[in-house]
Structures are given as C-alpha cells and as structure tokens.
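Can anyone check this?
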Amino acid sequence: MVNLIKRYLLFLLFLCCAIGSVNATAVTIPETCATTDYYVELIENMDTYTTKAILATYSYDSTVPEISGVNGNCIYFPDVSSLARFCNIFSGTSPSVAFGGEFDVYKSGVRTDTTTLFLSFKPTADGTYYGNMSINVSSSQLAYVYYDYDGGYVYNKAWYYYQGAQLYYFEDPASRYSSLALVPSGVFSMTNARSQYDNSMYASFVIFDYVEYEAYDENSYMVASTVMGPPERGSVSIYTEPGTEIYEDSYLWGTTDNGGLLEIQLPLGERTLKFVKDGYWDLLKTITVSENNTDVFVTMAPSNAIFQVEKEFSGDIYPNSIARLSLDVTPVKTAYATKLRVSGVEVNKVYYNTQELPKAADGSYIIGDISSPQNIVIDFKTTSSWGERTFTVELSATDIEGTAYTNLETINYNVLELPFLFEAPDSWAIGTNEVTLTDMSGESYSVLLVLYDKSGTEKWSSSTNLLEYCEYTFEVPIEDAGEYILELNAKSGSVKSYYSVEIIEPVSLVSDFLTANPGKVATVQFKISNPTESVKYYKASLSCPFYNDTIDKTFSIAPGTVDKTVDMSFEVPEDLEMEYYQLTLEVFDEGKTDPIYSGHVVLTISNASLLIASVPGGNTTLIILAAALILIVGTFAALRLKK
C-alpha cells in the first residue's frame, strides 16, 4: 500500500510539472518493447503500466526523445541521442527532469554516471553582459546541449561559446538541441545583447560523466545548478597488486599503476568493487566511501593459494607492548585441515572465532575446515625499539581433491616511538624501585602504572598527569621475589607498554639455627646471588640481643654470581644468662635504607665441650652424631694400643 501511494504521488508530481508547457510535444510510447543497450532503470520498482502512465504525462518544448519500449521500471531508447534528450529538462521555464532524475542510466549496456546542468542567463540594465562556466569532465567526450529563452522577441542577438569558439547564434525563436565536444577543464560562455523584453536565456547540458563545474561572472548574471546528477563523490586511494583492474559491476574504474596504486572518485556510501588480475583469484570487496579521503588496502590471493586474506591492526603499536593483528580469511573454495604458523615474532595468543587456540607440538595452530569467511586474531609481543618491522603468517590447507595450498602472508607493521622517555632500574629488587617518565611530545596527558604478579593479580597501581616536557618519578614497591608485569597506560589507553620484572630471591640463610659455647666465635652464614650484568655492592647487619650495636659487613658480588656464601662471625659473651637468643640478619643494597632481606637465626648457648658446638647450624642431632663419631674413633685407637 505504501508503494502504491508513493507511485500515485509521484504521478501527480510529474503531472503538475508538465502543466504550463507551451507548444509541448508528448512522448510516443510503443505498444511492444524493443530492448537496447541504451536505457534507464527507475529507482522505484514500478510495473510497466505505472511507468507508461507517468511517462505519457511528459511533454517537451523541443525535440522529444524517441522511446523503443517500456518493460517494468526500465525505459529503452534506440540511440544515445534519445537517451540524452530523456535526461534533459522539459523546457527553460520548467527545468525538471523526468521521474525527478530518480533512475540509473545505462549507456552501451553499462551503468553510467550522468549529470544534467541548467544555466540561466539574466539580462543586465543595458542588456550587454558576459557569463562563464568552467566544466570539468574526466575525459574528452560529447555533451548534449539544449538552448532556449523564456519568450518574447530578441531585439539584438545572443551567442554561445565554448573554449572561445562560437557554438550557437541565437536569433531563431525556436529551441535548439545540439552536441558539444567537451574537454577537461573547458569553459562555456554566453554573450547577450540588449533585448526588447525582459528576456532570460537558458542552456541545459546532459553529460554522461561525473562533472565538477563553477559559474562565475562579476555580477552573477549566470546561475548554474544541477538538475540531475550522480551522488556526491569522495576520493578513494586503492593499494593492491600492480596492474589490477578494478570494476564495479561491469564498469571499469581503472587499473592500478606500477606501484599498485589507483586514485579515483567514487560516489559516497557503500560500494562493492571487484579486483581482477591474471595469476590471482578475483576478489570482491565492499568499501564505505566518505567525504574525506578513503584508503583501501587489498591483498590479492595468488591462484596457488586457497585463501583471500585481509589484514588489519588494532590501534597504534608501541615498543614492549602486545599488538593485535586481525586476519579476515575468505576461502576461495572449501579448505580442509587448515593450519596456521607464525614466524619472526613472539606470539602471545591466537584466537579463532573468539576462542583461544592451543599451540600444537609442531608449533602450529590447528584451525580445521573453513568453508566461509572467518576471523583469526593474533596477539604478539612487539620489540623494545621502534621502527619498521615484519613477520610472516602461513596458512596451509588442502581442497576436497587433496591438492595442497599455502598462503604465505608478509606482515609489515610500524612500531611507533613512545611519547615519553621511560627510565627503570637496571635490576629490580625487593623494596622500592624508581621508574621515571619524561614527556617528549610536548603534550599533557594522564599516565597509569599497574604492577601485576604472574597470576595476573594487581599488586600496585599509581597515576599522574604528565605535563609537557616534564618528568615524574613513580615509586614501585615490591615485597617478594618473583615474576611481575609492569603495565603502562598513557593518553586514555591509546598508548600501552609492558615491562617484565623478575626478582630472584637474592639472600637465603644456610641454616636457621646456630649452636655456640660462651667465649667462642659463632658464625652466621647466608647465600646471596647477583643475576645482573653489573657488580653489586651490599651491606649485611647482624643484630644480637647481647650487643648494643649491630655487627656490620660490606661486600661485593660479581655479575652473574649464584649462591655466594657470606660469613658473619662474632664472639659469644661468657656471662649470658639465657640458653636461647634470636639474632636478626638484614642485607641492604648499597645506599638503600630498606633491606632487600630480613631473617632470623636462633642461637643456642651450649656449655658442652664439643668441637661441633660452635659450628654454624650446630644442634642436638649434630652433637649426637659428633659424639658417636668421636666414640668410634676412640674405640679404634684403643684397639690399636691393645695390640
């Protein structure tokens, strides 16, 4: 019902447009339809009866278009001239186009952009003036021109020119049609002498092209408007294989140059383009053309590959981050036993249809059969430095006949320089670690630092507003040895970077227990490591309840040293009253006030005259073993003496 109402409203609209025509001639519609390669297809999906009924209401002041027939919402013409007349205006006083221009034009069987321009020339006070209009077309071609005036008697004369050459001398009061050979950036002009009446002159152009034009004169005596035209266009830059032909339906928009680039103007909105090149599978791609320049990147699949692959990165890529590559994979035909391999980059995770894929024993990711477009996401770790980078993605599969195919995709990406300078400790340690950020971009933005342990649990976070060219120091506390990730977010999360933090337990006691005799020297032993590439300097402090001051020792550890044993010796006083004491050992990095290690040793005071009593870690079990050893040695000695 809605479409029916719309048809009748359209019918009444064009009926009103046709009223008032002077000396108008109606079109002749044949009973039978002879189809040709010159036709228009109405946007409104009308039946043959409705199309003919509306068409019969139109009348033209000059030569009417010849019609070959009507079939549904298609109107056919015997030649290009009749097609052009149909696309022109009814008259100078009624600058309207049939069906409001709501139709697609097919010239030689190919859908063709068509523009109808209307020029109105208004007389001046003295009747003499000049009007000019620049007309820019894509290539040299014919324009179909209609000249007219709004009645009366021309006292003097009027002339039409194109590129300085006279086209038409207006004295005959009859309207005129003619054709004009246009060239890119051509100029159309009109000169008019004084008229007896207040006449206005008109010209109408039908050009089978997308046209850019501009009317200009000092006093705006020439006014130009578009009566019918293709949709507004946007610039499109297409990057693909060199020598690729790019079609829309059967219309060839152009061929990419030796660098694989084609720059064209396309109507705004969704367009479906076809990419054709020898040695490659044909590719269909739907793009959205905007008013701004649209960049289109297309990867053609060689004929020995089974997939067409479109690649896209999510956001900007920065050093020490996790970048995301999205692959839209379209099988040319059903692919079986598909495998994915990634080389040249450290893969973090791979997702197929949002599900994480495990890594197989041979290093590949098993995808399986693919019969329709699918999406594969690869999260990978970026390098610590910025610049151009590359890696490869291989997709292997077979078809139903067992023929093997391989897509080898080269992935190029650019790691951007961070907008700030990041300074962290050469080696992280238990305690407070300083991280300094200095802005290098000249902008202010928020920064958030988050520390996670290896299970992903947040251990610490802090944020600040980093001012332009200023620095800020974060104090990152770490309580225990282990593996951590420091996540850095800046500019509302658009900049992300990750830093691995590993702290090896640097200090461990040889024993938590020590037995010593009064007046003897006791020794606390601990092991310490230096996993860094630099010499490390430390201070050890041992606190004993029976001493007023700590027992201190400074020492150094060579790079890469593992489990170096350090002794802390002291003399046990003679007059101790208790049997047990707790000693406290603290180890400090050079110049630091917070210890990297703090532990306790239980000291047992023994009055037994055993050698083992003052041995580090001596205890009851060791004493018994030592006594047994002495007993055995004594027994052997006695036996020898007896002999």
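Reply from J.R.: I decoded it. Residues 83 and 308 are 41 Å apart (CA to CA).
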